[in-house]
Amino acid sequence: MGDFHSVLDQERGRVIDVLVGFDKQEALNAGINNAQVNDWKRIHDAYFGRTRCTRLQRVALIKARANRVTLSKLAVIERAIAHIADEAARWRARHALLEVRGRCETLRRQAKAIVPAKEPAPPRPGVRFSSSHAGHRRLTVIAPERVIADVEHALRSGLDAARAPAEHMLEAFVRILRGGGAVPEGTYRPILMVPIDVHLHPERTDAGVTLHATDGTSVTLRDYLARTYGEALEVAAFHPVRGALDLFRTQRFANDKQRTLMRMVQPTCTVPGCRLPSDLCEIHHITAWKNGGTTNLDNLAPLCRYHNRVNDDDAHVRKRGRIRHVAGRCTWVSPRGYAVPASHPASAMQVLFGDPVEDQGRRSSAHDVEVRGVQVMRAPVR
Questions:
Q1: I want to staple 63 with a disulfide (CB 3.0 to 4.6 A). Which of 53, 98, 170, 345 is the partner?
Q2: Domain map (residue ranges) of the chain
Q3: What's phi and psi for 339, nearest 5 deg?
Q4: Highest mean pLDDT range out of 44-53, 132-141, 317-326?
Q5: What is the three-class DSSP state of 271?
Q6: Any idea what DSSP says for residue 153?
């Protein structure tokens, strides 16, 4: 027991001045591991090496001695500030960290708040191959996001529900390589997003959506948008509470229309943290088809293949969460009942109405329909 406390006392005594006269080769020859020797070298170079900021170096040395900062904590400080390019800024950060008391973990936490975060290196476009392992190799491709989006769309087309997506995409990738086929390039498809005033109450009938105005008149949504915006562009209508209402163009295809509107309402999978774009998602029935759910816009949401299969379809199941529409927005509800609204900044509801409560109140006296944005969708040419 006494021996252990002696070791602790020695560790506490290992402060900055023990590195006066440091020699890397002698330390390595003494059997000290490389990582620790390299830490000592960084500390020695900082406090006893040559620098243009000699005054700042003296201040740091005074702080390290006065606070009896151990070599372990000095090593933490040097690693935390190593990415700062400006020497004077690096010294200022070092001064601040030398004042932090407590354990090494406390110092690491404080360093995250004090030291500016390291900027990630920009990706280097290119193709890289790994060495062989168990008969396989790894292929890594870094390319412009639009190129990779086209490749992903091509590989995910026609996924077999009975197989793992990764296996299907590998086979599709090999077919493209062996067959000499090119991945189709995506084209942009602009759709005008139009907010419908909260005083125009939508009613969905077999004939489509009818808007009832506060003066007692009514007009079909198709006629209203045709009069106001014409048919040069696709025009999608959204209500601040009901959400997506309809999409119009010269030729109407119901299934494609619903998919397009859902992609505009939620540009990615609705489950928080899932990155899969809605172009590659399945359209999920919020009230399951087997439970009598309809294929109407207010019962649809985009979900990736995985989350569509693990969703709690039945009301009595509380395992993986479920999807709901709240104020016209796709919302994931946790198994314990906590609602997490989808918050993608490109969502049509967010672009047009912002926060549902604040914007609804702010628009309560408005009577005009205005164009608030154009959402550009992108899909490969077929």
A1: 98
A2: 7-114, 137-178, 191-244, 256-352
A3: -90, 130
A4: 44-53
A5: coil
A6: H
